[in-house]
Amino acid sequence: MSCHLKPISREEHLRFVAARSSVSHLQTPAWGDVKPEWRAESLGWFDEDGDLVGAGLVLLRPLPGLKRYLAYLPEGPVIDWGAEDLEDRLRPLLAHLKRRGAFSVRMGPPVVARRWSAEAVKAAVADPGAHRLGDVPATAREAGADDVAERLRRMGWRRTEPGGEDGFAAGQPRHVCQVPLAGRSLEEVRGGFNQQWRRNIKKAEKAGVKVVRGGPEDLGTFYGLYVETAERDRFVPRPLAYFRRMWTALTAEDPDRMRLYLAHHDGEVLAAATMLTVGDHVWYSYGASTARRREVQPGNALQWRMMCDAHERGAAVYDFRGITDTLDEDNRLLGLLRFKTGAGGEAVEYLGEWDYALNRVLHRALRFCLARRRRT
Predict the structure, then answer these.
(1) I need a surface site. Which of 74, 96, 143, 155 has the fewest CB within 10 A?
(2) pLDDT one-digit tens code per residue, 40-94
(3) What is the torsional sign of CA 311, 56, 159, 90?
(4) Using CA atoms, how far apart are residues 118 and 341, in angstroms rounded to an integer?
């Protein structure tokens, strides 16, 4: 089946997203409003009958002083990645972006490659011979993922190697942790928690931790905890304006696209988190907490409430987002992996992000600058 590509309206794009069970929140039209430093464009793939069969949000970042752009499709585009004519769907994308002045294209195919159950991750962490998830057999390998990767390589796409710490790249995470909810009762979901998780939830309940939904007026409270978390965990925080813009843009598209939760104890907010929903996929997006009164376990109470609400609205999966793929005991991110998989989550590996050089000179210059920035 031949497809042709052309720009589409926000309304067309949003209808396409709404008709699917799961599309990344980074591929909704509103996400372009969250990123004003990029120029956003919605693209659509149409079949021979004129039906919209694929869509993608492209973010275009200009080079200073030049009318040339880095084009980025985070966790997209949303097309049939198993189609026999995959190459014929991607070539028009490259041609269109080249006409737009793009010198390099980066995309993140929403294609799962491997999965490790919570039990498999626990066993891997305990194995002294395993240093990364890839060192241990996966619980499941997704059919077709290797074929997609090979076809991309033959076209000239190159996988982006993680540039951040222990698998956390500057783009979107290749490894995530997901708790399956479809076809399970809340009792079954809770039964999948490890002993520590169940104990901590009981501690929070006994201590009187209350988790409530907040609104835009509570973003300042969330942000105070977020800055404290950034100082403690040594990362650079986003500005408060980013979260306010995120709330305004996403809730304008769908009033329930973004939620804010706050964990209270004795009149103080000890933890807070944002939750995003598209279709039947729910993401834990940003989390924040104080180091005070950690013994009452507000973090576990917060996550459990979010999972319960996700389950109530019919979500198929609760997505904890990024995890490290390292299994080394001395790595500070291993605790985060244990925390997320302790909730019965499985480790999921996507194909990762891929680059295509439309102008090799500018593309190499960009890669050199990014590598130098990471070293300094």
Answers:
(1) 143
(2) 999 999 999 999 999 999 999 998 877 899 999 999 999 999 999 999 999 999 9
(3) positive
(4) 5
